[in-house]
Specification:
It is a single chain. It contains 14 helices and 12 strands. The chain is globular and about 75 Å long. The protein is α/β, with parallel strands linked by helices. Strand 5, helix 7 and strand 6 (195-199) form a beta-alpha-beta unit. It has 2 domains: 10-250, Type I PLP-dependent aspartate aminotransferase-like (Major domain) (Aspartate Aminotransferase, domain 2); 252-383, Aspartate Aminotransferase, domain 1 (Alpha-Beta Complex). Bound molecules: ligand P1T.
Length: 385
């Protein structure tokens, strides 16, 4: 009797998926294939690689690794998260319509409104946490439903399976930016999404030393179209950067477990702090989408935002941090603090920012892997009594 082979666990995949010892030397770690081109053994024949904008073995290893982690068949890596998102929009044509979560990373708002609108695409920004509003926003010309969950920075949560059901019924592909949760905690493809988006700059790389992006999906026809955009427009991840992210994903599960333990503790500290007017963390039971998030994800992550009520209070806290570094970005081993209204979301108009909760008093933390006591002590001194 043939026994069914057991599927490897997630931690095993994170270390091994997409990677074999290099055939020539047995090098256990995937080399950085620093080459722009590949010798062809004879006219019209190649060994699977022809030109490095199209493919590179280091990048291929990472693309396979990320596909395995997200439970998808195809992975594509790009020079940044924004390059991945732009490639996705490269599938559309003038006259097409996109429904987008009203709160997304500010750079996405800037790209959609500042560049892609000029190409004749139309965008409807909707509170996708409300599935009825989401469905009402769809039009006959809608060709993409684009969500972030939880959102950057106010941590709104969209029901991925619910959105996927609506999208499928209406024949619209659903793309989910999974940067904040990573596949350790949330796997949108398994919930019915069509494309997963990552800024690998964040947790996947995990050490704040590279910029990159990825798309993961199952549908072979869609994957082929995206590969066409990738090789044609050419914003690909370099082999060196791919090596760094591969190095990062090996420790992704252990890092995420520790990030989240500290994230929860920081959120609990802030929830009890008298200076904090409002807290945004999906792992708190009073978060409006707590139940939806707990159903679709196995963790809450380490992104925490809180409102101190005024620009002066936010500025004071941000200037007083000693261990949290005042900087854009997130997902690295080191803790960062930022002011979304003037930094990551400065390109969103002020009225719109305030309506979303991205107020002058909002501070966003990326809780890193330092000793928790040190993080809490820094928060305590920065917020004051
Ligand atoms: O920075 P880049 O690798 O191009 O990724 C863009 C991006 C996409 N999606 C999400 C959810 C993001 O948070 C980002 C980038 N965000 C920051 C730089 C930030 O500080 O929020």
């Amino acid at each position: 009797m043939r026994r069914k082979r057991r599927e490897p666990g997630f931690d095993t995949l994170s270390i091994h998926a997409g990677q074999e010892p290099e055939p020539g030397t047995g090098a256990v770690m995937t080399p950085i294939y620093a080459t722009s081109t590949y010798a062809q053994p004879e006219f019209g024949v190649d060994r699977g690689y022809a030109y490095a904008r199209v493919s590179n073995p280091t990048r291929t290893a990472l693309e396979k690794n990320l596909a395995a982690l997200e439970g998808g068949a195809h992975g594509l890596c790009f020079a940044s998260g924004m390059a991945a998102i732009s490639a996705l929009l490269g599938l559309l044509k003038a006259g097409d319509h996109v429904v987008v979560s009203d709160n997304v990373y500010g750079g996405v708002f800037r790209a959609f409104e500042g560049i892609f609108r000029n190409y004749g695409l139309a965008f409807t920004w909707t509170d996708t946490t409300d599935l009825r509003a989401l469905e009402a926003a769809l039009r006959p010309a809608t060709r993409l439903l684009y969500i972030e969950t939880p959102t950057n920075p106010v941590m709104r949560v969209t029901d991925i399976a619910g959105a996927a059901r609506i999208a499928r019924r209406r024949g619209v592909p659903l793309a989910v930016d999974n940067t904040f949760m990573t596949p350790v905690f949330q796997r949108p493809l398994e919930l019915g999404a069509d494309v997963v988006i990552h800024s690998t700059t964040k947790y996947l790389n995990g050490h704040s030393d590279s910029v990159g992006g990825a798309l993961v999906l199952n549908d072979p026809a869609l994957a082929e179209k995206l590969r066409f955009v990738q090789k044609t427009t050419g914003a690909v991840l370099s082999p060196f950067e791919a090596f760094l992210v591969l190095r990062g994903t090996k420790t992704l599960p252990v890092r995420m477990r520790q990030h989240e333990a500290s994230g929860r503790a920081v959120a609990a500290f802030l929830a009890a702090h008298p200076r904090v007017k409002r807290l945004y963390y999906p792992g708190r039971k009073d978060h409006p989408n707590y139940r939806v998030h707990a159903r679709q994800a196995s963790g809450f992550g380490a992104m925490v935002a809180f409102d101190l009520g005024s620009l002066a209070a936010a500025r004071r806290a941000l200037n007083r941090f000693r261990l949290f570094t005042l900087a854009e970005s997130l997902g690295g081993v080191e803790s960062l603090a930022c002011h979304p209204a003037s930094m990551t979301h400065a390109s969103v108009p002020e009225g719109r920012r305030n309506a979303l909760g991205i107020t002058p008093g909002l501070v966003r933390l990326s809780v890193g892997l330092e000793s928790l006591e040190d993080l809490l002590a820094d928060l305590k001194q920065a917020l004051g009594r």
